[in-house]
Structure formats: C-alpha cells, structure tokens
Design brief:
mainly alpha; three-stranded antiparallel sheet; three-stranded mixed sheet
Length: about 1450
C-alpha cells in the first residue's frame, strides 16, 4: 500500500510539473480569450453565472470587485440548497465547476474571484463577519463543492508558479493558497495534504517558504502527523527550508519521537547553520523539550552553541578598541549590527522559553551547575545565568546558590565575566536592574571572593551600560559603603576607586551621590576614611570645572570642623581627610594620569596646600597622638611619590628643623633633672669623644612626661611651651627620612648620623633589682624599652636599602639590638601584667588599645613547649587557616626562655611572656627591610656569605635575627596575600583589628607585595637549604634526638621556627589567588623558575607544567629534614598548592598521600614527655589530606583500623601504635572521626548502579560495598573499647549518614544483584545487620545516660534504621522472596550487650524489632539477616543544621 501510494504521488507530481512547464511556455495572450468592458456585469447563460446570480453574487468584469447582494452565510445556504434540490443533482455540480473553470480562464476574472467581494447591503443588516470573503472562499465553504474547487485551484496554480507579480503587485500563488486558510471544515483533509505537499516539492524556493508556513492554517489536527513526517523528510533533503519547516513543526501537534528525531538532526547541524537561522532553530529545540529529556537536551545545546564565535571578530575588536578609548560601547556598521540583532533575537527566544517553561529554566541551571572544569565554562553560561535570574523569579535563590558555589570554587573568574559583558552587553543592558540586584545580594555574602565578584558586576555594568545604569551603580555602591559591614564597605570603596580610573568624566556626573557618604564617617575605619577622601579629592580637584567646586567647599567644611574637635575619632577624620586632600591638590602633575591638561602647581595652589598643612599641624601639636598621626599620614603621602617639588621642599625644611629641635641633643651635654635612673648614652655604633656627636634624648623626654605632675600623664604643657612627646619620635623620624629620601633620590647622607648615634637611656638589664622596683618604675622601664625598640625599627626601615658595606653592617647591628631588647622587655612584662604600652600605630578607631594577655595566660598554664612562642617583636597577625590550628603547637623563638625554663624548673617559669600579644604597640617594618635576607646565615655547620666592614669586623645575619625577619614577613604575606575569612562584625567589637600595625603595608597592592616576595625567593631558598642541612647533620650525629648530648635546645627551636616560617611564607605566596589573573602569570613563572633553578640550570621558555613538576620535586626533597609536625603540615599544604596549578595532578597526588602517610608514621621529637605533643587540629588536617589523596580510601581506613588500632589496644596506657606513632589514646578520637567521615563521604560519592550496567560493573560495585561495610563494621565495633562521649557522638552522627548512603546507593544495586549473587548479598546484609544492631544498642546507651549531646541524634538514627528494614523487605519482595522476611522482638541493650531492664517486654514489643531473611532458592536453611526496626510513630524531622552538627 505504501509503495502504491508513493507511486501515485510521484505520478501526480510529474503531471503537476508538466502543467507548470506548459504554463511557463504558454504565452499570456492565450489566457485572455476575450475582452470585457471595464466595470460591466458579467452576462452569461452558463449554469455557473445563473446560480451565482440567483444566490446573491453579481460577477463583474475588468478590475471591479464581484458584488455580494446578501449576507455571506445566506449566500452559501441559498447556493447549497439550489444545487442540492436541482433536478440534475449531482451532475449539476460538475456543470457548475465546469462553468467556474471556463470563467477563471480569464486572468482578471480569476483574480476577482480570489479577491474579496464588495458588499451591497448595510453592515447593520449583516449577520456574519464585518469583512467580505472572496468568491472562491465562499464556494470552498460549501461541502459539496469543496473537493472539486480545491482540485481546480491546484490545477490552475502551476500556471503562476514561475511568474513574477502582476502589474497591481498581487502574487497569485500566495493569493490562491490563502483561500485554503482557516476553512470551517475540510471535507477531504488527506487529499488536500497530498496535493499541497506535491505543490511544495515543485514550487520555487521563495514560494516553498510561504506554502510551508501556511500549513498550520490550512490543515486539520488529524493531518498533523502525516505532514510532520513529510516535512521532516524534506528537512533532510533541503537545508534551505530549515527555518520555515521548524517554524511549522513547532506549531503542529506531533509525536514526541518525531520531534526528538528532528531535534537530534538540528543539534548535529547547530555548529554550521547561519546566524540568521539560529533563533528559529533554538526556538524549535526548546519547544520540543519534555520534562524527561530537558537536562540532556539543554546540556547538549550549551555545548554546541557558542555565540562567542557567531559575532564577527571585526565587531569584537572594534568594540574593545572603542571601549578602551571612550569607556562605553558604540554602535557599529550594518553588517556587524545585523549579527548582533540576530543574537538579541536569539536571546529573546530563550528569555521567552525560560520565563514560561519552568522545566527549561531549571534544566539550564542544572546543566551549568554540573560543570566541574574551569575551562568548560563558557561566556554563554554566565550570560544565561544572568538572564534566567532576571526573567524567572522562582529560580533566583537557586541561581544565587549556584553562582556562589562556582565563584568560591574558582570556576567563574573575572576574565569570563569581562568577556560576557564585552560580547553580550546589548543583551545584558535590558536586564541591568536584575544584575544590580544580584550584585547587591552577593555583597551580603560572608565569602570575600563572592563579594569581589559582586564588585566586578558593578564595575562592568558601569563600564558597558548607559548613563542611567551608571547612576544606579554608583547609588548601589554608596548604599553598601553606608551599610557598616566592613567587608562590604572596603570592597565598595575599592570599586568606586576603580570606576574613577575607568571613566573619570562619568564619575564626576555622579559625584553628588558619593559626597553624601560624608554623613556616615562615624562608622568607618581609618583605612576606609582614607580611601573615601582620596575618591572625593580626586573627583573634586583632579580637573578644574564648575561642577566640582561644591564638593571642594563641602570637603573643606568637613575637614575644618573635624580638626577643631577634641574628640579622638573626629580629629582622626580631620587629619586623614586634610592630608589626603593636600596630597591630591599638590600632586606632581608631570606624572599623573588623572590630571592631564593641567600645568605645574601654581603659587596660589602651593599656598593653599601649605595653608591646609599648617592648619593640621597647629590643630594637632598639643596632642601627641594627633601629631604622630599627622606625621604618619604625611609620610605615607610622600612615600607614594606624588608630591610636587615645591611642596616637598617646604615640608622638608620644616620637618628637619622640628625634629632636630625636639629630639636631638649633643652627646657631650649631660641631661639635667631629678631622674629616678642614671642617664647613660647606650647603643652607639661609633666611638665619640666628648666634644662632638649627637644623641637621641629619649629618657629625659619620657621622664618629664610620665613623672611630671605627680605621675599623671601630661597631654599639654603650659601655654607658650611646645609639647615634645617621645611618642612622636619614630613617626617624626619616618617623615623626615622620607622627605630627605625623595629630595636626594634615596641618598640619606644628611641624616646618616641618626643610624649610629646613641640613645639617652639607663641600664636596661634588670638583674637583681627587678623585684625591688616599684610598679611605676616597672611601667617606666617598659615604656622606655618600647620607645627604644620602635626607634630602632624605624632606623632599620630608613637605612635598610643603603648599599655600602659599612651601612649594611650597622643595620644588622641594629637588628641584633632589637632582638636583645625584646629579651629584656619580656622580663619586665612578666612582672607588669596590667601594663599598657605607649601607642606606636595611630590610625586606630579608639585610643583604648590593650594587649591581648588574657588568652596568653591561659595557654601558658598548660606548659607545652609549642605554646611558649615569642612573636617577632613586631606584629603577629591574626591566625590563618594554618596558624589557627597551630597556636597550641608553635615552636618558641630565640627570645622565648620557656623551653630553657622547662629544663630547669623553678621560679623563672612564671616569667614567660609572649610579645605577640603586644604586636600593635610596635612600629611597622617596611617591606624593603627584607632585602636584609640577602645577607648570609652562619651556623655551626654551614658557612654562607660573610659581609665585611671597613674595619674587617665580621657581621652576619644570625638565626635570631633571621627568625625576627621571617616572622614579620610571614605576617605580612598572610595579611596581604591570604584573604581573611569574612565574618559579620560582632556588636561592640573593634572593626579592622586585622589591619592594626599594617597600615603602611595596606598602602600597597597585593601584586606589589607578591612581586617583592618573589624577589626574595632566592635568598629564602638559600636559608631553607641551610636549615635543611642543619637538621640533616643533627639526624646524622644524634639520630634525631632533640635532647641529645650534641644538641643545643634553644638553637634547635630557633632553627625549627625559621623552617616553619619559611614554609609558611612559601605557602602564603603560592596560595595567592592573584596568580590566576592573566596579568600575574609572568610573576608565577618567575617564582617557579626560582625553585626550578635550584635543581638544574635555568632554561628559557619552559612550559608551565614542567616548572610545576620541577618545583614540586624540589620542595618534596625537604621532607627528610622536617623537624616538627607543624612544619610537615605546612610542607604538605605547600605541595598541594603547587599541585592545584597543574592540569595533570594525578601522579603527584599519590606522592602527597605517600608523604602524608610518612608523616603520620613518624615519631615526632618533643622536648618533654608529653602525652600528646601534636595539635588535634593539625593531626585532623593531615589525616584528611592523606585519605583524600590516597588511591584507595577503603584500604587506607582498613589499614589504620585493622592494623594501627589493634596495636594501640595491645600497647601500654601511654604508648602509641607502632605502625602509626601519631595514633595514641588521646588522638584516637581524631583518627576515628576522620575515618568515619571519609568513609561516609566515599560511599556517598559512589554512583548507584542501574540494571542497564554490565555484569562486570555490578560485580565491582558489589565488591566495593562489601569492603565499605567491612570497614564500617570494624570502626563501629571499636566503640566497645573506646566508649568516650566524643567517640560515641561521631558514631551516632556518621553511622546514620552511612546507613542513609547504604539505602540510596547500595540497595538499588542489591535489587538486581540478588538473583545472580545471592550468597554475596546475604553475606553483606548479615554483616551490616550486626553493625546496625550495635547502633541500636548505642541508642539505648544514650538514653540511659541521658546525654543531650548524644540523644539528639537518636530519633533520626532510629528512623533511618526503620527505613532500612522496609527497604530490605521491598528488595526481597522484588525478587520473589517475601516469605524469607520476618520480624521479631529486639531487646534494648547497652554497649556491652547487657539488657536494659527499665522497660518490660510488653512496652518494647512495638518499640524495637528485627528482621531476618532466608534464602530458599537453593537451601532450606534460614540465614539470619536482621535489621533493626524502630516503629516509633512520633518521630519528627530534625533541622538540617542539627543533622550535620559535629560539635564536640
């Protein structure tokens, strides 16, 4: 039948083609047989004309419309009745149609029949529609005429297929086909479908488009399937008809299988279609999606659709060049804009789909969420997330969650966001409000990377969108700045600063919004105030025009008002604001980008600047801290190197004279006064005779301040006397040094006498008099030493970059003095517990800064070696992820005498003080100081570079000085390169405490700091290798025993601390997120080349993978000499950071696991007989690293639980496992928690099997689950031996999670493995039954002891056990073994198996049950397989936070 039908179709098609060719050859004159008088009535005796006239239609000749005298429905009814009642019916129909054919042979008459009729009756009398149908349309509405007329039309139509439009612009084929649209009834739909499809096959292409798109309006629903099949075949033959065919297929009711087939065809061609066709194709694909295949289709679509390559490269380049020059996009040529129009149309199609089809939007988000690799994320993905976020309100939270996860994992980076905005800015401009809403939401995150991404959204919205959007961006950022959240404020201020650099002119238009922030200064930190005034000053003073004058006036008003205040906070705002303003006003125009077009500083402008600075000086000179703050702020300004020479000259002279008058005295002049201590000139580096030389007048100034007026602190002196406070010594000198340095291009000869001049002090070593001194004297001595230390630190800052050997030697000597003074200071602080030192950093939020001694005291009581560490004497930053874990296990530094005190227990043990608690009271070391690391390190075994002075005196950088520098550098690296964990600021807690003591450092960018550290890598590698050799020699001579006869304990711990700090610095550098940015790739290459060059000769242009591999190998070599567990953890994490940057980490990943195992199996030295000399957090971290990187987690767990734990059980009380020396009774809970967590995590990640998988896969998964259950069984049974509360808590929590994973991942596998692997499944369930029974006993144990920490897990665990019983029963029923399942009573027992007798058997019958199953397939023997059943009907779902609570 099919073949016959095909044959008839082909014959009909041939006849149609013959008709069309004849019509093409036939001259037009033959078609017009006779001429008519225009506008005359057709007079004809034919049946056709008569019947029409009788029914109410008057035919006209020429171009006049046919006239309809009656209503259309009445006409059709009359004609139908006339024909039906005619005596010659049905022959009359043939005559009528024959008359029609004769009549329409004339082209004008045919055209008239196809055009609408003219109505003669009034519209009010019309019963039908208000428009008139054509004669043919009216006749087609009569059922008995329709088939014949359709046949006539299709016979007539080929005559016009290859003709152009008629003189009056009418396209006859389109007009003929239009008669078939929207018929009330189609008599023979199948025949009509056949005819029109044949017509489509022979028509020219432009008509094929029209005919195809008309199909839905012509055909009935019953014909949709046939037409869909025909069109899909045609689609494969003729790709030029893709658009109309797909458009029609979207409008037809078709079989899903057919749509799927066509969709697959289109997917295959997606990469090669024209951009113009893309919107229709995507519309069809999205239209054909069903709920079952949505995710699969969308995933394939996003892989194949790459709009980045659809837009012409010339357009992209032109857009980028214009964006760089103008700061915003401009419209391009016709060709390129048409391509962009198609992309906009495409996104409109997608917007419509995701707005109205929930399954599409959710599938699209899931498809993007499932991408793991960074490189697989496309520009299109990010654009789609933004568009779905704007169009579908129901998915906003979902998209936010996906975006946050992607940002945190580093999958979506700035480069991707920049490209997305650059290519699709016209599309994204329409959703600007939603983008700003998303940015605002991201700003409220606790994660710094998420907040930064929100900032980038604002930045690129401002860059690419119009003026209105720019205004909204600035308004949103101002709102964030006024929010009071520290992370939000910092990021928003940085974003505003970037916008000024990006587009200064646009920002000036919005300056009035920024000015409003001046009302919210109270809640801002000094660093934030500095940024704000820099932003406002840049907008107000960088370019002279009228719009900025009002901002200048407001700023002057605010600054003058704050300077005149006596309240600390407001005066600080005034000083910072005034100095920042002066810096912008006095900017060196020859080097500034923001002030192009302006000449050098005029005399008038110079006067304004100096007047402002004099105002600040006069307002602050009566307050020491205000003066010191002014000096520091001004010094930071000069250090930026942007001050105009005129201003610099004026400042330099004023500062030089002021410092000399205030602090410098002649060496030969003995200070006069009634001092409590004898004044001596100490710490001079050169021999002075009595007639020349200078000294720093420190002790007399401090004494006059502290002991004047009955010991009360003096904040002001009598009128007319200038206040000189020792607080200002270091800040004043810093300002003086920077002025001289700028004026003389780094030459400090003018002030080099201050490097070696002595200081007027007294004997500082306390000796025996320490106990006899009063508390006031103790405080005085502490203050004197603090001020001396800060003076020496600033001296080192000043002269560290001098190149002459003599100067270098003096700087090293000053470093030794610092270390010596810190030892002395610790002795005084130990007997002065409530002492508050003089301030050293003045940009604080409050003057009430106190040392953090409370926490330190608690730590010291425990008496652990690692907890008696001295800080670097400068600034110990807040702990990072490592040091947070390591506070309890840090090695002491040289000045810490606690270790020696342990060797000789006595009274001195109470004197231990950690200077890290006082870090905010020391002056900040500049980053340039660390150039001293290039000096050699001399130890007992290793001899490095020696540095000779002119007097041939050997000066070397010793271990204590090295440690001092490394600790300070480690803190700086942590503060700048490792982002803090952003937290909400608690009420009444000082904000910005992380930055106290780092204000100078914060003036620089993280890129600058990273560059400086990379420059120091070579000397740090030298020191690392030297220390490595030191410990290698120790191992050789003393077999690694710390307290061996040849080991100096203090020296050992100093070297160990240096080792740790070097690894910490390396880790901080290589974990810096900035290396992922393209502009910093060269810096990463440089750093890796330094490490690689330590192994082999440096080669040019090595690939990144080779550099990473060599660097990994170099660092790995240090594992033999690691002196402490903390160093081991730093080394492992450093190797992991290197590994993360590699694209092929598999091989080295196993090396990390091997190294971690070695560290776990090593006996770590300890200076005392401590039970647990390793921090629990460190051990937890290293164990997690081992199990995460090992090849088989299950085998690793089996080794620890099956080998290490039995060794521990059989060992004496305080001993450790021989295989794993880090495993003892104190650390068992850590091992247990990590093993349970990793076991649950591993099985949860295992995909559940499906029946479609191969037999081999089923067997492998079954074997894997057998191993997992065996490990679980071993771990669970350990609670019989180790039954402490933390162990039981871990068991309850992770036991439930493991059973849940078993239900979800393993039970589906057992469903279809039971028949083929019956014995294996029974064995697995039997083992698991014993484990779950023990869990049930644990629930009973928790209830007996009424421990709330344990009992809160019991309801959920029992519910899970009940679900397991039901699931096992369902599995047996599925495999036709229902009779093998039975329930029995299970008694409540404790951990030892003893029955709990507080409940009688009747109560427990319905409470606990157990199932056993037997296999009767091959055996009649019943095999137990009990699972606990808890039939408690009153269980409630617990909050998810409680479920995963792991608090101990």
């Amino acid at each position: 039948m099919v073949s016959k039908r095909r044959l008839s179709k082909s014959e009909d098609k041939e006849s149609l083609m013959e008709d069309a060719s004849k019509a093409r050859k036939q001259p037009l004159s033959k078609k017009t047989k006779k001429s008519h008088i225009p506008n005359a009535v057709e007079e004809n005796d034919s049946v056709f004309v008569k019947l029409l006239k009788t029914s109410g239609v008057i035919l006209k000749t020429g171009e006049s419309q046919n006239q309809l005298a009656v209503d259309q429905i009445i006409f059709q009814k009359k004609l139908f009745q006339t024909l039906r009642k005619h005596p010659s019916y049905p022959k009359i129909i043939e005559e009528f149609v024959s008359g029609l054919e004769s009549y329409i042979e004339d082209q004008d008459s045919f055209r008239n029949c196809l055009l609408s009729c003219e109505r003669l009756q009034d519209e009010e009398a019309s019963m039908g529609t208000s428009y008139s149908k054509s004669l043919i349309k009216l006749l087609l509405g009569i059922d008995i005429l329709q088939p014949a007329i359709i046949k006539t039309l299709f016979e007539k139509l080929p005559e016009f297929l290859f003709e152009k439009m008629t003189s009056d612009g009418i396209n006859m084929p389109r007009l003929i086909i239009s008669q078939l649209k929207w018929l009330d009834r189609v008599v023979d739909g199948k025949d009509l479908t056949t005819k029109i499809m044949q017509l489509i096959s022979i028509a020219p292409e432009y008509l094929q488009h029209d005919f195809i798109t008309s199909l839905p309006e012509i055909l009935g629903d019953s014909q949709h399937a046939d037409v869909g099949k025909e069109l899909s075949d045609l689609l494969m033959e003729n790709t030029s008809l893709t658009v109309p065919i797909l458009d029609v297929l979207s409008s037809l009711r078709l079989d899903p299988n057919l749509l799927s087939k066509v969709r697959q065809l289109m997917m295959g061609k997606l990469c090669s279609v024209r951009l113009d066709d893309l919107p229709v194709i995507i519309k069809f694909i999205l239209h054909s999606i069903t709920a079952t295949d949505a995710l699969e289709v969308i995933s394939e679509l996003r892989e194949k659709l790459d709009l980045q390559h659809c837009i012409l490269p010339s357009r992209l380049q032109a857009s980028q060049s214009k964006l760089k020059s103008k700061g915003r996009p401009s419209y391009l040529g016709n060709q390129e804009s048409s391509g962009q129009d198609c992309v906009i149309l495409l996104f409109d199609v997608i917007k419509s789909a995701v707005r109205y089809e929930k399954i599409i939007s959710e599938a699209w988000i899931k498809a993007i969420e499932s991408i793991d690799s960074v490189s697989e994320h496309k520009i299109f993905d990010l654009a789609m997330l933004l568009i779905i976020f704007s169009t579908n309100t129901q998915t906003k939270k979902y998209i936010e969650r996906v975006l946050r996860n992607k940002i945190r994992s580093g999958c979506i980076q700035e480069q991707l966001l920049r490209s997305t905005f650059c290519i699709h800015h016209l599309v994204l401009k329409d959703v600007c409000p939603s983008i700003l809403s998303l940015a605002q939401s991201l700003f409220h995150s606790l994660d710094q990377s998420t907040i930064s991404f929100g900032s980038l959204l604002y930045k690129y919205a401002f860059k690419f969108f119009d003026t209105y959007c720019q205004q909204e961006v600035v308004g949103a950022l101002v709102t964030h700045i006024c929010s009071g959240n520290e992370a939000e404020v910092d990021t928003a201020l940085d974003a505003l600063l970037e916008l000024i650099l990006l587009n200064p002119s646009a920002m000036r238009l919005n300056a009035v919004f920024v000015k409003g922030i001046l009302d919210y200064l109270d809640n801002m930190s000094p660093q934030q105030i500095r940024k704000l005034f820099y932003i406002l000053s840049t907008l107000a003073f960088s370019k002279q025009h009228e719009a900025s004058s009002h901002i200048q006036d407001d700023m002057h008003l605010v600054v003058r008002k704050q300077l005149s205040s006596t309240i600390f906070k407001y005066k600080l705002i005034g000083i910072i604001g005034a100095v920042t303003m002066a810096g912008i006003m006095a900017t060196d125009r020859s080097r500034s980008n923001l002030t192009q077009g302006r000449t050098d500083l005029s005399n008038e402008q110079c006067t304004q600047v100096t007047t402002l600075l004099q105002l600040v000086h006069s307002c602050s000179e009566q307050s020491p801290w205000a003066s010191a703050l002014y000096y520091d702020e001004f010094a930071n300004l000069i250090q930026g190197g942007k001050l105009a020479p005129k201003v610099l000259e004026w400042v330099g002279q004023t500062i030089f004279n002021g410092f000399q008058d205030a602090f410098v005295v002649d060496f030969c002049v003995v200070p006069e006064g009634d001092f409590s201590f004898p004044v001596k000139a100490l710490y001079g580096l050169e021999e002075y005779n009595t007639h020349d030389g200078i000294a720093i007048n420190l002790l007399p100034l401090l004494f006059s301040q502290d002991f004047a007026k009955d010991g009360g602190r003096v904040t002001s002196q009598e009128s007319g006397q200038k206040l000189v406070s020792p607080l200002c010594l270091a800040p004043h000198f810093r300002l003086l040094r920077l002025c001289v340095e700028r004026q003389h291009n780094g030459n400090l000869e003018e002030i080099d006498g201050l490097l070696d001049c002595p200081v007027f002090l007294t004997d500082l070593e306390p000796g025996e008099r320490l106990k006899s001194m009063s508390a006031k004297e103790h405080s005085f001595m502490c203050s004197l030493i603090f001020l001396t230390l800060n003076w020496f630190r600033e001296v080192v800052n000043a002269f560290c970059q001098q190149t002459s050997p003599e100067m270098k030697g003096k700087v090293l000597t000053r470093l030794k003095h610092i270390v010596e003074l810190q030892k002395i200071l610790e002795k005084y602080l130990a007997v002065t517990p409530d002492y508050v030192p003089p301030l050293a950093n003045f940009d604080l939020e409050t003057l009430d800064v106190t040392p953090h001694t409370a926490g330190s005291a608690k730590i010291r009581k425990k008496g652990k070696i690692g907890r008696k560490r001295k800080a670097d004497g400068s600034k110990t930053s807040s702990p990072d992820t490592l040091s947070k874990e390591d506070n309890s296990e840090c090695h002491p530094t040289p000045s810490d005498r606690s270790q020696l005190n342990k060797e000789f227990p006595g009274k001195e043990e109470k004197m231990s003080v950690s200077l890290q608690n006082y870090h905010t009271f020391f002056r900040e070391l500049d980053i340039e100081v660390f150039s001293i690391l290039h000096c050699g390190l001399v130890t007992k075994f290793i001899l490095d570079t020696e540095m000779h002075t002119e007097a041939t005196e050997v000066v070397q950088l010793g271990p204590p000085e090295l440690l001092f520098l490394l600790e300070d550098l480690a803190q700086k690296v942590e503060n700048m390169l490792i982002p803090p964990v952003t937290r909400r600021v608690p009420f009444l807690k000082n904000k910005g405490s992380r930055d106290i003591g780092f204000s100078h450092l914060r003036q620089r960018s993280s890129q600058e700091i990273a560059h400086c550290v990379v420059q120091l890598l070579t000397p740090m590698c030298n020191h690392l290798e030297n220390i490595h050799n030191y410990f290698q020699c120790l191992t050789t001579e003393n077999h690694g025993v710390v307290d061996g006869p040849g080991v100096k304990v203090q020296e050992y711990y100093i070297m160990a601390s240096c080792y740790q700090r070097l690894l910490q610095i390396f880790h901080g550098l290589f974990s810096w997120s900035g290396f992922f940015e393209p502009e910093n790739h060269n810096l990463l290459y440089s750093a890796l080349e330094v490490l690689t060059s330590r192994l082999k000769q440096r080669e040019h242009e090595q690939p990144l993978e080779e550099l990473l591999s060599q660097s990994f190998h170099y660092l790995q070599n240090f594992h033999h000499s690691i002196p402490s567990f903390q160093c081991a953890l730093y080394l492992i994490r450093l190797l992991m950071v290197i590994l993360e940057k590699s694209t092929a980490p598999a091989q080295n990943k196993e090396k990390i696991a091997s190294l971690a195992r070695q560290f776990l199996c090593r006996v770590w030295p300890s200076g005392e007989k401590e039970k647990n000399n390793i921090s629990s957090d460190q051990l937890h971290a290293l164990l997690c690293i081992y199990l995460e990187h090992t090849g088989s987690v299950l085998k690793a767990i089996e080794e620890i639980a099956g080998v290490g734990v039995p060794e521990l059980i059989n060992s004496p009380k305080d001993a450790s496992a021989s295989t794993f020396p880090t495993l003892n009774r104190h650390t068992f809970v850590i091992f247990f928690r990590v093993m349970m967590a990793e076991l649950e995590k591993t099985v949860r990640g295992l995909q559940a099997g499906t029946a479609a998988d191969s037999q081999q896969i089923h067997e492998e998964k079954l074997l894997y689950w057998n191993m997992a259950v065996r490990d679980f069984s071993v771990l669970i049974n350990l609670i019989k031996v180790f039954d402490s509360r933390p162990v039981l808590h871990v068991c309850l929590k992770y036991g439930r999670l493991f059973v849940e994973a078993f239900l979800k991942q393993c039970m589906p596998l057992l469903d279809f493995s039971f028949r083929k692997h019956r014995e294996d499944v029974l064995s697995l369930l039997e083992t698991f039954q014993l484990d779950t029974r023990l869990l049930h006993h644990l629930c009973g144990h928790s209830k007996i002891h009424q421990d709330m920490r344990l009992t809160k897990h019991v309801p959920l665990l029992k519910k899970t056990l009940e679900l397991l019983v039901c699931r096992v029963k369902a599995m047996l029923i599925l495999n036709n073994c229902r009779e093998a399942f039975w329930l029995g009573n299970l008694k409540n027992r404790d951990l030892q198996g003893e029955e709990i007798i507080s409940q009688n058997s009747q109560e427990s019958t319905a409470d606990e049950s157990e199932d056993d199953m037997s296999s009767q397939i091959s055996k009649s023997k019943i095999t137990e397989d009990g699972e606990e059943d808890e039939a408690n009907a009153e269980e409630k779902e617990q909050d998810s936070d409680e479920i995963y609570d792991d608090s101990e």
